[in-house]
Amino acid sequence: MRVVSLRLTASQWRLITEHLTRELPNEACGLLGGCAGVVEQVIAVENAARSPVRYRMDPARQLEAMLAIEAAGLELTAIYHSHPHGPATPSLTDIAEAYYPDSLYLICSPDAHGQWRGRAFRIVNGQVSETPVVVE
Ligand SMILES: [Zn+2]
Does 2 have pLDDT greater than 80? Predict the structure, then answer.
């Protein structure tokens, strides 16, 4: 099914942004399990790169998270990570390393007031298209 938006509840969005804030100044990352763009699960994954400018999911933690999503009968709806210094758009590295064409990439950066803002993208064969994020 074609996903037309990434839908999160306010409490899921809070879980994500608390995780992003906790990991500052480094990038933080995680997986969102769901169905048809509606998020059901937020799973923080350790950023093994421990860097303010890149992320690399700890492979064992990423596998555990993938299995948890599958065990719940859900899909990998999105992969989230932060750009602490912005912008909330995919970097060239993000595009080159986008291995999940069926998943969305949720990228978050702080606005001028320090509030996290997220934008979602589909990245297929180097082509980037934006999908709206809805927090309800
Ligand atoms: Zn990035």
Answer: no
